[in-house]
Amino acid sequence: MAYTSPPPSRSVLSNKAHRYRILLSLRSLLDRYLSWPLPPGPSVEIAIPSKVSKTPGSIQLYFFTAPSRPLCPRKQTQRLPPRPVLINFHGGGFSIGHARDDSRWAGTVLKAYPDAVVVSINYRLAPERPFPVPLEDGADAILWLWQEAQKYNFDKTRFALSGASAGGNLALAVPFRLHEELQKQRWASIGEEIELAGLVVFYPSTDWTRSRIERDATNPIAPQKSIIPPSLFKFFDDSYLLPAGLPKWPGTDRVDMSHPYLSPGLAPESLLLATYPPAVAIYTCGWDQLLVEGNTFRERLGGFVEEGKMASIGGFVVEDVIHGFDKKPSFCRGNKARDRMYGDAVNQLKVMWKID
């Protein structure tokens, strides 16, 4: 993806981000407090220090649990079955949004699996913290949860990731960064009994080699139906994709937009098979500029299943809906398309978590 003009200053982008965040938070409030059935709120919030990123700071983790199964340190005398964990990344173009925006998805998971724990990551946002900070915060959160697994009775072998839009990109790319980090001696204390059980991803970006115009061209109905104006897409890209921090082609100063950390759909087969769990589900939207690249990646992973290299690939196209359709306040009308997508995704988790 080439820049045709210098991006705006970081201060200008930060001012825009502040305004956009206020608007999105209002929409989220309408969904969380005025749309039925009401989703749950987080039961616990914990701040952890960033260790993976070179940019110091803290990362907020929001824990969602069923009322009957609160999050609390396990007593030595307790012998309860370890709990499966879903680690979620919210959307918002890496620049806006909040971990609470996915409360409805968390509630759907907990209704089906009351013993589960959903952890929504409030990763640090661009333009203040552009690529690769959100990606590194995701790896940091997983590493911390693995380290604390015994204390909170988490099942280290049943960690699944989920995310929508930009969060979907993170859910698909974080395993690569996590794999790189785990090669370092500093994480030896985590132990060997760790692995990701699955990925559940909603309308992700998977191929940053395509410009926004090129993405629209792959699905011409998308710009007609989208409620996201081109100016907002440009803001997202300018905020997150700060050229100085982007991957470069080896031995050059040219930005490599095909790098797996940006474009997980283009990752080499060897990396995918070394880092991905055996089960992945990708859901795409029929009226979305990201439809084709998401479908292409799902089909590519499906080829690994046919070759016996992965266990299962799920997900489908949700027809006649726009990007982010499940986050719109529904008030008393409900959202049948969202319910169908979330319902299927919950069934995918049953397979990933090996729940009878």
UniProtKB/TrEMBL annotation:
Domain of life the protein comes from: Eukaryota
Gene3D superfamilies: alpha/beta hydrolase (3.40.50.1820)
Protein name per its UniProtKB record: Alpha/beta hydrolase fold-3 domain-containing protein
Keyword hit for Hydrolase: yes
Occurrences of domain Alpha/beta hydrolase fold-3 (ranges): 86-325
Listed transmembrane segments: none
Keyword Hydrolase applies: yes
GO BP annotation list: antibiotic biosynthetic process; monocarboxylic acid biosynthetic process
Matches recorded under Pfam families: Abhydrolase_3 (PF07859)
MF (Gene Ontology): hydrolase activity
